[in-house]
Amino acid sequence: MLEQAEPERVKQYIWIASIALLVIAGIKLLSIGSRPKDLPPGPPTLPVIGNLHQLPKKNIHVTYQKWAKEYGPMFSLKLGDSTTVVLADGYVIRELVDLRGGNYAHRPNLWVRELFDDSRIIMRGYDDLWKLERKMYHASLNINVAKRYLPYQELEFLQMIHDTIQKPDDFVDHIGRATGSFAASMTYGFRLPDKDSDLTHEMLHNSHGFFTCVMKSQLFDYYPFLRNVLKLFPQSWNPLAKEALQAYESERNVFAKSWKVAQEGSLPCFAKDIAQAREKAVAAGDEGLFTEHAAQYIAGISFEGGADTTRYTLHGLYKALTMFPDAQRKGQAEIDTICDAETFPMGHHIKDFRYINQIAKENIRWMPTAINGAIPHAALKEDHYRGFRIPQGANIVLAVWSANNDDKDFPNARDFIPERHPAESSLFESMHVATNTLLLAIARILWAFDITYAKDENGNEIPIERDAFVGGLAAAPAPFKHVVQSTPIGREQSG
């Protein structure tokens, strides 16, 4: 009898253990998506998915602004099995990202990181290579180095004005060519003189593959444990992995080819500065992480940042000047005191720009490119702020749109009011190349053009949707109709 009872007892134990495991697994599964009580507040969650069902397909910056008003300047979201803390106030952003920068310079462990060999600085954490790259970028942007690039800027924005006079409806393409060509000249020592050339298209669209892969693979960032499931199958079965590897190979080839051209060229450029720094490191036996691949990516990311950000910012400028003609007239009035029919705005005039400086600051605030901070930051270690816990590894989103449109800091925030900013302070602290680029471009646009609303067949102004954006990680104004007309001075000098 005892011998017969023993197997039955074993079956009971197995059954009880199985039920217990299922209960534990169920509890664990249901805990995914829930918000611990010590996290910053946020919208209600659902089991497993958290707040994923509440994310809009577009214009998430508007949703962030709504939630900030409801839950405060720092709120949290549970996106699947991940935690995101959104900072929606300028003061909070400065308190954490600036004053505690060592903890928030980290980046999320994106699924595409491994496929791109951790090559991009915005994918990596606060490591030694990150510090090296930052050092190189700061060296390339200081005030002394910035002076040598002024002739490049003057040339590209002269062609931009000429091209816009010839084909004003293509102003967005002319901006893109000019900013891309300057970025190529500064980084690699060669120009992009034709907006329709294969080279221009290749250079300006090289980063699109990476950012597309980031957006498509978000499921594996929301539920990191799914990455282990993927590893059970050959990588060739995963279409996202194949797409990412193809994008990585494409951008790597573009960066390597551009690097080679730069080293063989005669003009001074950032890529040559990087190569010289690397040669010194190799000669000293201290190559370490400073491989040629790393050097090529330091240059390549510098090009992308210089080309895309300024292009979208100047696109927003045209929209602002159309909708707020008073700011346009005041900017032109300042240009008239500095430049006349015989004087085209040049690099040496930049120090005299005061209202132009205010226009630039307001332009960045009113129509930000990194509308949601682009790629999120991440908390390197657990932190506490205002009585709330920020978990280690939490994604940190900078809700730039919300911060820039906070009425307590910027009354009548959706009005374009350059006077709200000081005229004397620097546009970009310690980023002199970017400052010169934006100020010179704005000055030449104001000098050369009157920008007004387009009109329909009845002579009525065609309205512009003020807050319409396109894009994802980097935002640009949605297409709008306006008229770009040469001023008498602009025609005389650039026609």
Automatic annotation (TrEMBL):
Regions that span the bilayer: 12-30
Gene3D superfamilies per the UniProt record, alphabetical: Cytochrome P450
InterPro entries: Cyt_P450, Cyt_P450_E_grp-I, Cyt_P450_sf, Cytochrome_P450_fung
GO molecular function, one term: oxidoreductase activity, acting on paired donors, with incorporation or reduction of molecular oxygen
Annotated keywords: Iron, Membrane, Metal-binding, Oxidoreductase, Transmembrane, Transmembrane helix
Source organism, top-level taxon: Eukaryota
Keyword presence, Disulfide bond: no
UniProt family annotation: Belongs to the cytochrome P450 family.
Name the UniProt record assigns to this protein: Related to O-methylsterigmatocystin oxidoreductase
Organism encoding this protein: Ramularia collo-cygni
Lineage: Eukaryota, Fungi, Dikarya, Ascomycota, Pezizomycotina
